[in-house]
Amino acid sequence: MNLFEPFAGYGFGKAHAACYATIAFRTAYLKAYFPVEFMTALLTAESRGTTGPAKNEKIAQAVVECKRLKLPVLLPDINKSGDEFTIEENVNIRFGLSAIKNVGDAAIKNILENRSNGNFKVLRIFAPALT
């Protein structure tokens, strides 16, 4: 017991530092060698996170980082966007419908189900109650 107590004073911190260093290295590697995949995953993770301004701010920061990396983030598209962020043509990131403020899961599910019948061509087909 006398040998363990002094180690506990610094060993626990060193163990955490080693874990964080491993995570930082792996994260940097993925970002450097698989930037599109990494940023798409990051955007998806942030869109699943907390709600409100913090969520929007984190997504905005990730989009700014995509611009810095010269990775195109495509606007949401009713005919192309999925529930989450997706990769298009191996170089573009398509904005996910779930990351759009006030678009709920039921609406996204309805859009994706109806899209299987073909693309939406005009607003009245997408939202008949609005026309």
Describe the structure.
57% of the residues lie in helices and 6% in strands. A hairpin with a 3-residue loop joins strand 2 and strand 3. The chain is elongated and about 75 Å long. The protein has 131 residues and is mainly α. The protein has two domains: 1-33; 34-116, no CATH class. The protein has helices at residues 4-33, 35-48, 53-68, 105-115, 123-126; strands at 73-74, 86-88, 92-94. Helix 1 packs across helix 2 (35-48) and helix 2 (35-48) runs antiparallel to helix 3. The chain contains five helices and three strands. It has a three-stranded mixed β-sheet.
List the helices and strands and how they pair.
Layout: H1 4-33, H2 35-48, H3 53-68, E1 73-74, E2 86-88, E3 92-94, H4 105-115, H5 123-126
Parallel strand pairs: 1-3
Antiparallel strand pairs: 2-3
Helix pairs in contact: 1-2, 2-3
Order of strands in the sheet with the most strands?
1-3-2
Indicate the percent of residues in helices: 55-70%
Low-confidence sequence ranges: none
Number of strands: 3
Mean pLDDT: 86
What class do helices, strands and sheet pairing give? Answer: mainly alpha
Residues in β-strands, percent: 5-15%
* Number of H- or I-type helical stretches: 5
From the N-terminal CA to the C-terminal CA, the straight-line distance is 77 Å
- Shape annotation: elongated
Q: Write the element-wise H/E pattern from the N-terminal end onward.
A: HHHEEEHH
The major β-sheet equals: 3 strands, mixed
Radius of gyration: 21 Å
The figure for the number of domains is 2
